[in-house]
Amino acid sequence: MNIIISTSKQELGQRAAALGADLIRKAISQNGEANIIVATGASQFEMLSALIEEEIDWSKVNGFHLDEYIGLPVDHPASFRKYLKERFVDKINPQNFYYVDGEQDPAAECVRLGDIMKNYPIDVAFVGIGENAHLAFNDPPADFQIKKAFLAVNLDEACRTQQLNEGWFNGLAEVPKQAISMSIHQILQSKHIICSVPDERKSIAVSKSLYGPVTPEIPASVLQNHSSTYFFLDQESASRIPQSQN
After folding, report:
1. Domain 2-235 carries which CATH code?
2. Residue pair 230/4 in contact by the 8 Å Cβ criterion
3. 0.85 exceeded by the pTM?
4. Which one, 32, 37, 122, 238, has least CB within 10 Å?
5. 192-197 and 124-127 strand pairing
6. Domain boundaries, the chain
7. Tens digit of each residue's pLDDT (9 = 90 or more) over 204-215
8. Strand partners for 33
């Protein structure tokens, strides 16, 4: 587990993107292509902005994203497909990008994506963690055992409130109660994981995830068990890290 603390969100994003880009280039050099996972949300703004400026042969990159609300139209401001298409995919034109379509039958969509992922072992996963320490949309208590690549999940109120407070919805009643999410097991199959987590509101989740017990009640704590995970924090998100670890 590697922890890199930056002085600002912009620096955090640049450092996370620089490492991610280096790992992508190495995968292309070794395998002829690279396979990545990309997260969404406010925590990823700076990282994605920096990543698209990196010198990468995107025509040799295949991408997946972590999750999508069930039943939310693709043109809704909170749609993760819309977020990634506008902020990332249309700017880089990758070889392939496989979106999670929450407007389709959830069970069938999970099977479809799982079948595709079998052909693309992930080199680099760009992820964040939630205020409730969720990883993707695996809210606590997360299922650490399920082997499916994607699953339909229920979203807890803390998760839905975070989405509201980040400005994606006008009221809590508008926030969907279910989503399709990549599983914990599938995320952990990634060769490298880059976890970008700015902001003081994530500081408790960060401290518990990095230094608490590995438990489904703190889903992101499972990253402690991954051999190549990099946590990129800013001063605010790192503010509750135990003093003995500083």
Report:
1. 3.40.50.1360
2. yes
3. yes
4. 32
5. parallel
6. 2-235
7. 999 999 999 999
8. none
